[in-house]
């Protein structure tokens, strides 16, 4: 695949679309067992979360204190995306780039 196959997701707060390479450069910690990762929007600096499922990526929010759940606002399928979750972290691979995220215990953002 090449750059023209790169999909974009819109920030749930400001609505601005960002391609996945840009979003992945703004990733924070991960809930590795759930395949969720926190991301800071490069457009508005607000936090939201990404959820991975195969080559599918959703953007939205993790909510709920005792039983956190992911509420997506937009979902896309990205050819070539690989996500590997391990107990101590998460590895994301796309277009010959790699992002390694540290594991994070469930810590939903305040409502
Ligand atoms: Zn934003």
Can you tell me about this structure?
With 111 residues, the chain is mainly beta. Helices cover 5% and strands 51% of the residues. It has one helix and ten strands. A five-stranded antiparallel sheet has the order 3-4-5-6-7, with no helix packed on it. The protein is globular. Mean pLDDT is 89; it is low at 107-111. The structure holds zinc ion. Zinc ion binds at residues 11, 13-14, 16, 41, 43-44, 46.
Task: Furnish the topology, listing elements before pairings.
Blueprint: E1 8-10, E2 17-19, H1 20-24, E3 27-31, E4 36-40, E5 47-53, E6 56-63, E7 69-77, E8 82-86, E9 89-94, E10 97-102
Antiparallel strand pairs: 1-2, 3-4, 4-5, 5-6, 6-7, 8-9, 9-10
The structure holds zinc ion.
Using only C-alpha atoms, the radius of gyration works out to 13 Å
User: What's the count of strands?
Assistant: 10
Task: Estimate the strand proportion.
Answer: over 45%
Attached small molecules = zinc ion
**Element-by-element helix/strand order:** EEHEEEEEEEE
Overall pLDDT score: 89
Shape: globular
Helix tally? 1
Features:
111 residues, mainly beta, five-stranded antiparallel β-sheet, three-stranded antiparallel β-sheet, globular
